[in-house]
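Students often ask why inverse folding is considered easier than folding. One informal answer: many sequences map to the same fold, so there is more than one right answer. In these notes we will look at a single instance of the problem. The structure comes first.
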């Protein structure tokens, strides 16, 4: 049905017999236009626009946050034991590549009387290692064996055959053993102070860092008493 025919039909329905079809057609066109405009406005008013905020590399903000959290959780860590003259001795977890200074800081920092320069604070740590911070007195004894051996009341550190008594030797005397450095000597002294004297030379293997191989090189040069 054409537009003109529609006008005639509406004129008949509305009993507008005397109204010209052209006028009715114009009214219908205006009404149709109004309806279309109203529908368009309703769609625009009811529509919602969304904007996705993109982060670095084109990822959304939520994706970037999730990625950062996952990276933090998966970052490799190492576990080290910090002992000696620190505020809170114990096990610390640090990022891989951390240095001795960070381990000391994680243990609460140096305790009173600690020898700050006795450990290399710039050294990169390895997983599972132990750091012993000596006292100023222990560091001085290690640096000057003659002073360490000055106490007349101290029991002899060596027995027949020139063996070192691991129950009585101080740090300066222990470092004379082949393969025993200052750090290992301090561990030996602290172990016997914490756990009592060694009953047999094999008990030396309870000290961290002294395994079967190192013990084999020491057993002919040490004794207990």
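Output (designed amino acids):
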């Amino acid at each position: 049905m054409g537009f003109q025919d529609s006008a005639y039909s509406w004129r008949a329905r509305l009993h507008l017999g005397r109204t010209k079809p052209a006028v009715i057609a114009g009214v219908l066109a205006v009404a149709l236009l109004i309806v279309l405009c109203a529908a368009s406005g309703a769609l625009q008013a009811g529509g919602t626009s969304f904007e996705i905020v993109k982060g670095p590399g084109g990822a959304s903000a939520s994706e970037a946050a999730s990625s950062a959290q996952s990276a933090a959780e998966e970052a490799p860590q190492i576990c080290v034991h910090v002992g000696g003259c620190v505020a809170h001795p114990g096990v610390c977890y640090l990022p891989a590549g951390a240095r001795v200074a960070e381990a000391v800081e994680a243990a609460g920092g140096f305790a009173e009387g600690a020898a700050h320069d006795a450990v290399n604070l710039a050294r990169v740590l390895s997983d599972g290692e132990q750091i012993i911070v000596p006292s100023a007195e222990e560091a001085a004894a290690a640096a000057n064996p003659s002073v360490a051996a000055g106490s007349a009341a101290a029991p002899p550190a060596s027995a027949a055959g020139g063996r070192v008594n691991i129950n009585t030797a101080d740090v300066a005397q222990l470092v004379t053993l082949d393969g025993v450095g200052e750090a290992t000597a301090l561990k030996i002294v602290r172990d016997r102070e914490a756990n009592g004297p060694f009953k047999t030379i094999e008990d030396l293997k309870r000290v961290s860092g002294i395994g079967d191989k190192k013990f084999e090189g020491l057993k002919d040069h040490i004794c207990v008493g």
